[in-house]
Amino acid sequence: MKILMIGPGEPSRRNSGLGVACDHIAHELSNKIHLRLFSPETLEENAQHSSENKNTYKIHLGDKLGDHRELNADIVHVQIKSALTPYFYLSNTEQEITQEQDNHIQQALDEYTKALTIQGEKVDFDLIYAHDWMSIPAAIQLKKRFNKPLVLHIHALDYDRTGKKSNSWLYKLEKEGLNAANAIISVSHYHADIIIKNYGIDKNKIHVVHHGVNKKEIEKFVSPLKEPIILFAGRLCSQKGAMEFIETAKILHNKNEDVRFVMAGEGELFPALINKCMEEGMMDKFHFTGHLKQPELFSLMSGASVFVMPSASDPFGLSALEAANMGLPVVLSDKCGVKELLPNAEVVSKSDPKVYAQRIIKLLQNPEETRNSIKGNHEALKDKNWSNSVDKIIKIFENSI
Prior knowledge:
- This is Glycosyltransferase family 4 protein.
- Residues 122-214 form the Glycosyltransferase subfamily 4-like N-terminal domain.
- By secondary structure, the protein is an alpha/beta fold.
- It is built from 13 helices and 14 strands.
- It has 2 domains: 2-212 and 385-400, Glycogen Phosphorylase B (Rossmann fold), CATH 3.40.50.2000; 229-380, Glycogen Phosphorylase B (Rossmann fold, 3-Layer(aba) Sandwich), CATH 3.40.50.2000.
- Helix 1 packs across helix 13, helix 2 crosses helix 3 (132-146) and helix 7 (242-254) crosses helix 11.
């Protein structure tokens, strides 16, 4: 079975959790089937461009981006305009995209699609396996051109980013891809319901495959701080509940709770978050790390006390799964798909900073109960590794061919 995978590129600050998940999937697939991987390069890896895998082919298109680490697959790198990333979109509460920017993004997508389609015509494959909106136009064209089945893996949608059903070109593109796909992979039952209700997709062609988590060998982080660390990790944006985390911290700060707050990640809300911390007189209790690579993030998790994910809508929430795997108690929004794998997580049913603060205090003040929560989540993750997740994906491939 030869699979043509169109992915978002190697994990980087430009593709966030999507890149991490697809990287794990690609490596597991490459050990089990014949994989051909098409993906955009990234700016961060451009400096390493000289060390190419012999099976790697480059398409020069627009601004230079980067390289992809070696794996057991035929790889095609596609260089695209820098405006085109999985997370170009910004919600109305953060920053409006101008018509000029929108046009530039669509032009970059058209060029990327053309390059992918040209390369797709040169290789042999049995099935197209595409991830999210950037891959949809090329996937549809290749499906029509070669009459091959299409499996579309959805990690996030326009609905999650805007919080509503829109009439944008991106929503229309996603709906076209969902309708064209022979099978759809959703990362959670929570998100499958969104696909069905807001995109009008037949539930019978949607398959839920949760992300996995592998055991980690890391250098444990020894905190120089005496206070417990409350950790947020993710894009600093409204969708991830970044401002809700600040409001939660404000409540704990006003209660004179002796804790520190760490926000790991980058995003559009960064200046507003800094300003809010300054206004509330909390800067001496806050630490903003910027983007962290996976080993650095896991090390930080090993020294934290509580992980908080107050997302407005999170199809999965991979960082929360990683945190639970690292032995952290987790406080989640009920709009996070990852709750389906963490039976002992503290789940908050509405976006209320007071409730988040109460749950954090509960975990800090009840160590025995917290240890039981950690143990319960850890037990639930025993067989939730990436290899098992990819086995389910391969079964979907087999049933689609």
